[in-house]
Each structure stands twice: as structure tokens, then as C-alpha cells.
Design brief:
heterodimer, A: 113 residues, mainly beta, 4-stranded antiparallel β-sheet, 11 strands, 0% helix, globular, B: 112 residues, 6-stranded mixed β-sheet, 52% strand
Chain lengths: 113, 112
Amino acid sequence: EADIYQTPRYLVIGTGKKITLECSQTMGHDKMYWYQQDPGMELHLIHYSYGVNSTEKGDLSSESTVSRIRTEHFPLTLESARPSHTSQYLCASSGPGQGQTQYFGPGTRLLVL
Amino acid sequence: AQTVTQSQPEMSVQEAETVTLSCTYDTSESDYYLFWYKQPPSRQMILVIRQEAYKQQNATENRFSVNFQKAAKSFSLKISDSQLGDAAMYFCAYRPFWVLVFGKGTKLTVNP
């Protein structure tokens, strides 16, 4: 199993609050990703990064933002949480070799009231 | 657009039996990777098996094997000797470049 961590695992928060979901990996992977998983379990790519100081938006439009200041760290921030942001957020990383296999963190379940 | 289709939203299998999950994809690329991921209820997504498109030989990992038909753009997953721990959502994914394109998943139930 890969070493990729997400905190918090569960978060219940009120509307309008600013939140940051943390994602860290210890594998030295250059690429990292954020997915949103809806209740039907479908995965949507919302952000990805090719390396430090590189971030791109994914297929699904998201009001969140990301940063990549360090290789191992890829936090996702919501400036003002809304009930529509309620979802599970999965972080993943990949490195050279193995077909750029993506390894996933345990996820953060977010509930916005 | 590149798409991945899993035509079976749900499947069930008896313990110790064999089940095959279907996946088709659409691409104009000739070199790419295909993956099957497993996500048990409330647990982490993990890699089950990986296939390189330029390799003719079907990948195998213990009880898991694939039937890769490149011309038909088909990539099915066979689970042999199914176990209760195999119950999960299974996602097929295609990678032409750096990002993955996922199917919508197949929920597998294993009956004792």
C-alpha cells in the first residue's frame, strides 16, 4: 500500500466557514490529484498538480482552490463552505514508473450544514 | 471525448464462484494504461490490477485477471474463487496521459 494521508477523515461544518482539507504523501511522487466522489460513487477530478508550483483544474468545475508549495503536500481549500460542497474528497498521487499508477488516500467525508 | 463505460451498475456472486465485470472505453490513442480499482464500503480505494495497452498478455494478480481486447476496446475483470472481502465498488479506469478517466463503477455483492 502507498503512504498517502488525508486529514480530517470526517468534518461537519456550518455554511460560510473556510475549510482546508489536508493531503500528504511520503513517496516523493511528483503528481497529485483531488477527486470529488458523489453519493452515487462516481469520481470527478477537480484539481491536479504536475509538481511544485503547478496546479490545474480538472473536469468538474469546483469552487475550491489548491496549492502545491511542497512536493509532499497538496491541500484543498474552500473559502466559504456551502451544503452543495457536501461530498467525499479523495486525494491521490502518482510517480514515474508503474504506468503512473495513482495511489489514493483514505478520503475526507465533508458535511456542510 | 475519452470515456469509460461500466455497463453493470451492480453484480452479485456466490462465495467461491467466479464473476466477470465488464468495461469498455473509447480512445484514439494507441499507447495507454488501464486499471481496475476496488473501493470497499467506507474504506480506501486500492489498485487491483494494471494493464499496459502495448502488452498482448493479459495481466494477472492472484485471483484477479483481466481479458484485454484492444481492438474491441474492452477490459473486463475476472474474479475467481470470490471471497466475502471482495465485496466492494469496482472502478475501471483508463490513462492516456497523466489523468485517469474513470467509469461509474460496479457494485459487487458476495453472497455467503
